[in-house]
Every structure is written in C-alpha cells, then in structure tokens.
Amino acid sequence: MSGQRILVVDDEPQIHRFLKPALEVSGYQVLRAMTGAEAQALAASHRPDLVILDLGLPDCDGKAVIAPLKAIRDVPVIVLSARDQEPEKVAALDHGADDYVEKPFGIAELLARIRTALRRAAPPPGTRPMVFGPVSIDTVHRVVQREGQEVHLTPKEYDLLLLLARRPGGVVTHRQLLTEVWGPAHRDDVQYLRVAIGHLRGKLEADPAEPRLILTEPAIGYRFAAE
Amino acid sequence: MTDASGLIDKAETRDPRLLWAARWLLPPAAIAAITAAGLSAPDLVGVTSLPMLYLAAVVASALMGGRVAAILAAVLAFLAYDLCFIEPRGTLTIQHREELVTLVTLVVVALLTGALAAGRTHALGIARRKAHLAQALLDVSAGLARATGPEAVCETLAAEMARALGGRVLVLLPGAGDDLALAASLPQVKVLVARDRAAAELVARQRQPAGLGTARVGDAGHRFLPVLVNQRLLAVVGLSLPPEHKEGQALLGGMLEQAALALDRAQRARENLAAGLTRETERLQATLLSSLSHDLRTPLAAVVGAASSLRALGDGMDQATRLDLLTLIEEEGERLNRLIGNLFDMTRIEAGRLAVRRDAIDAGEVLGQALARLRRIDSSFRVDLHAEPDLPAASGDAVLLEQVLVNVLDNARKYAGAPEPVDIYLRSEGEWVVIAITDHGGGIPPGELDRIFEKFYRAGGADGRAPGTGLGLPIARGFLKAMGGTIRAESPAQRRGGTRFTIRLARRGGVQ
C-alpha cells in the first residue's frame, strides 16, 4: 500500500501543513495543489492514486473539478466539507466523488477512509462471490446467501444491494441509487428507496433496527459497511 | 389675494371689496357724472341723448356689479332724469307721455340687461371655476404621478392642495396602531396642536371628516378628512380653509381620490422593494453564515488535524515536524481566538452594550501597543511612523482605539500585499486628533469603497480572499462611533494606488 500518491487539493495552507507530514508518515507520497487548475495539472502529470478535495476552492467550484480529475484516470476522490453543507456533499457525490469527510476531522478517520477508497479502487471483479461477513453475493448466478442460506430478493432489491456492495465503505447518494435501479424518472422518489432498503435489511441484517451492513447517511444516501 | 380666497373663490367673486364698490359706488358715481354733465353742458349733452347715456351706465353697472347694481343704476337714472331734466324740474311729476315711455324703457332695459349681465357673469364664473378645477386636479395628478415614495406623495399633496385651496394643509400618515405621524405640512408646522390631533385621530378611527366646521371637534384649527382605498385608511388630510363651494368640494374630493391612488401605489412599491430587500438580505446572510462557518472551521480543522496527527503518528515523525505541528496548533488557536474576539466585539456593538471611556489618551502610545500586537501575528510587518511633536491628547477609550488600529493596520497588512511599509501619520487638525494610515497596495475599486465598512464584506468575493471574517473594519467604525470619532477610506491614496484610512478623534477639551 505504501508509496501510493495522494493529491491534496485545498486553498488553506494550514490544512496542507498537517496533512502532508501525517500522510507521509503513513507511507503515502503527497502532492499539494491550492487551486482547481493546479489540481488538474498535477493529476495529469503525476497520476495520483487518490485525491483529497476541499470543495471551497478559490478559482472554481470544487465539484467542477471531480469530473475532469476522473476523466484523467478513474481515481477515487474524497471530499472535505463542513457539516452544514449537506447539499454540497450530495452534489459532490452525484458528481462522482467516492466519499466525504467532515471538517474538522481526526487524522485516524481520514486515514481509514483513504484505505477503504484505495482498496475499492482496485477490486478483483472476478467471478468469486463477494463476501461481507455473513452475507455473500454470487454475481454470476445472482444468488445471495446469509449464513449459507439462500435469501430470496426481488430484482430491484438485488440491483440495489449490488450497487451498494460494489462500493464497500463508500457513500452512494439517494439520487444515484434511484436513477440506477428505478430509472431517472424516479430519481427523487426517496420513499421507494426507504421501503426497499427496509426490506433488504429485514432479509440480510441480524437486527434490522440496528443495521451493521447497510448504513444510513442522513439526508445523503447509504453506505455499505466494509468489514 | 392668494391667502384667503384661493383659486376657486377668486374665480367667482374676485376681491369682495372691489365687488362692493362695483355694486354700491359705481352706479351712483356714473349717474351723478352723467347728470352733472347734462346740467353743466346742455349744449354738449342734450336732453335727448341723456337717456342713452343713462342706459349705458345701467349696462356698465350690470356688467361690473351684477343685477343689484343694474337696478340701483336704473332707479338712480330714473330719479336723476326725472328730477333734473323733465319739466317741472325738482319734482317727480311727469307731464309728457313720451317722457314716461322713456323712463319706463330705461327701467325695463336696466332690469333686462342687469339680468343678462348677471347671468353672464355667473356663467363665466362657473366656466372659470370648472377650468380652474380641471387644471388644479390635473396639477395634482401630475405632481402625484411624479412622486415616488409615500413621503414624496405627501409633500406633493400638501403643496398642490395648498396652492389650489389656500390656507394650511397638513398630511398625516397612520403609523403603528392608531398613531398618526405628520408627514407633510404647508406652510410648515413642526407639531400638531392637541385639538387638531384629537380631530385627526377621530378621523382615523371613524373614517369620517372631523374638526373645523364639523360637528366633531369643531373647535380644531383644521378640518380633517380621511384618504381611503377600500375603507383602508392611507392618510388623513387637514385643511385650515376647507372649501365651501360645491366646486371646491368636488375638487377636494378629486384630489383626495388621486392622493389615495398615489399613496396606495407608493406603499405597494415600497412593500415590493422591502420584500426584494428581505430576499437579498436572506441570501446575503446565508452566504455570510457559510463564509463564517468556513472561517471558523478552517483553523479548527487545522488544530484537530494536527493534534490527532501528533497523537496517532507523532512517534514516526522527526522532531522538526512535531514542532511545526505544535506551532500550527498554537497559531491556529490564536487565530480562532481573534475571530471569536471580533465576533464578540461586533455583537457588543450591535447590542449597544459597549462600555466606552472618554479618557485623555495618547494616540501615539496606543498606536505603539497596536503595532506590538500586530508584530506578534506577523513579525515582518513594517510601518513608517510620522508623528507630530507634542500631539495633543485625544478623547477616547484606549482599549477600543487599540483594537481599531489593530484592525485597520491588519487590513492594510493583508490587502496591501506590497513590500513598502505602511505609512502612519499622527497629527492634530483643529479640534481633532488625526491618525492617517496609508498602504501602498493595489487600492480599492471605487464601487467597493463604500462597502468595506459593511459587516462580512470582503474584497474578492466569497472564497479565495485574504483570511479574515470581514468584521475588522465594521468593528473599527463601530468603536470609533462609540467614542465620538470617525473613520474614512480613500482610494487611490496616491498616484499609483494604495488606500488611506483617516481616523479622527476629538481633541481632549475640544469638540465633543
């Protein structure tokens, strides 16, 4: 894992001042950018393995940088944002960001998110079933098992589970799930999603009232727990 | 002529003294003159031409003085002609039948012309009054159409009504509750006397005229009338000379209608504007809040991030890195403290909770303390100080002034971005102690110069500007105001740019 390059994009020098030594001590190489333009130039020339992106950039809206960064290489992007910026976070995730961390954050939390995002970025999408604790998903035969017992899912529930499971540890927004599973016409029908997630939890979670597999990100979406 | 009668009355009666003269003095004078001429110059004015002359006098009297004057002239002519020129003279006895015809003709013609002339005068008066009425209404409408705010509408209304009706005109606007506020008056008055206020308030409550010449509060100096739209009271108008004629009242009614429409329009326009302003304010506040949240959270993120990095990863870091992270925590902590201090100051200013001392202070000494504080933030900060020798003491609060100077100098430091030191001049000007702070940066665009003292305003927009809360200059202005001083910004301060802030405090013992 060490030696991977992380591009940190933030216009505040004091953020760089602690992130750079912390990431370097953790075994990453750090690239620093203060603006969106600088970030794109560095992404093109140095091909980072992960991008940490502050949404408030001096030269542009941080969200607008995500797509160009991803176009250069399908690099995981973790967004830094404030807690009171829910719409900003959702928009960033809808624009293709993989995860977000709220400022202020402890370094341990950020490092955990970085590890998850990097692991996800290099998944072995082979034919072996995906296993998450007691739950396994056999994508070839479309069979889901819990503790070895087959669980019957409707096609929509299966699609939903697969979408979440393909990004373990990452956040998928309501809109992304609705658009993919129900179609763009239903992209705002969050109620459909709530019902389906409720059913999924009932079938897969040991205690649906305290889910450990499909976690709720209030007002944003759902996160599939990476064990 | 203009004070008491006004346009409408003038059209009908002209000056009453003139009318009285035309009615009672003109006929005897004319008849006397003709009679005297007939008696003294019988060759020139023959007895046969006299009836024609008397007739002319009767017609003239009718035209000038109306029916009464015509009859008076005819009677006088009859008497004068009979007494002085018809035999036997000195008596009313008539001997010749044709002379009787002459006399009767004189009287009948006098009555007829009198009636005709009087009718013509009356018709002319009505026509004139109607023309004046139309003109006056037109003037009011035109004036009201040009007026933009409710206050301007009231001013225009008072001016036009005073011109058209004469006397004094008061316009009152309803405020909160039953309160009426004097919005305009012509000729101007400062306050409403008690009886007038009582009458006006009665009008506001009952939506009916009251005051002078009415049964309600009849002893008031003005008659008060409501200005209504759909029974909604928009204003109350007071008149010291309410019109008594039908036409005058019609004009008044028309004016009040126009006023109601204009006031309604002006109030709606203002409400729309206020709604727009509220939306703009809300949008601005959302921006400010997000900007403030960003400003507070960034140093906090640095503190939490650096501290957690030290705790989790410190063992793997070299000594220099660990020290730098500790320094970062300290610096960002201080920065947070300054931000919170600024917010606190602003809150105190806005709540009016500022305890201000008016001591004799040495501006130079306070400046020294401010500079020392700034150097703790930025050790490379340089100034060129030019202080007048024996500067008089200023009246103010040393603690507040120090904060003012720190804020203004910090602003110069952050925005000037120039290598030249900041120029500071300390001098006395008349009753003022002046501190002028000039930077050598790019200056402030003219459009933004007015806004830099606004709360949360920062040059350069929402993000990517120099760090700060956008509170430094508003606080400086708030503190100075509390100390009785002023602050002003000029840009460009010299040929190539730069900004100059001029701070004035009263000299101790000078103006307060």
Structure description:
The complex is a heterodimer of chains A (227) and B (512). With 227 residues, chain A is of the alpha/beta class. Chain A has 2 domains: 5-121, Rossmann fold; 130-224, Winged helix-like DNA-binding domain superfamily/Winged helix DNA-binding domain (Arc Repressor Mutant, subunit A, Orthogonal Bundle). Chain A has helices at 13-25, 36-46, 62-72, 86-94, 107-121, 155-165, 174-181, 190-204; strands at residues 5-9, 29-33, 50-54, 77-82, 99-103, 130-132, 135-138, 143-146, 149-151, 171-173, 214-217, 221-224. Chain A has a 5-stranded parallel sheet, with helices on both faces. In chain A, β7 and β8 form a beta hairpin. In chain A, α2 (36-46) runs parallel beside α3 (62-72) and α6 packs across α8 (190-204). The radius of gyration of chain A is 18 Å and the shape is globular. With 512 residues, chain B is of the alpha+beta class. Chain B has 3 domains: 6-139, no CATH class; 150-269, Beta-Lactamase; 359-506, Histidine kinase-like ATPase, C-terminal domain (Heat Shock Protein 90), CATH 3.30.565. In chain B, the strands form 3 sheets. Chain B has a 5-stranded antiparallel sheet with strand order 2-1-5-4-3. At the A-B interface, α1 and α5 of A face α7 and α8 of B.
Strands ordered across the widest β-sheet of chain A: 2-1-3-4-5
CATH superfamily of the largest domain in chain A: Response regulator
Overall spatial form of chain B: elongated
Rounded radius of gyration of chain B (Å): 42 Å
* Domain count of chain A: 2
Order of strands, widest sheet of chain B: 2-1-5-4-3
Separation, N- and C-terminal Cα atoms of chain A: 18 Å
Structural class of chain A: alpha/beta
String of helices and strands of chain B: HHHHHEEHEEEHHEHEEHEEHHEE
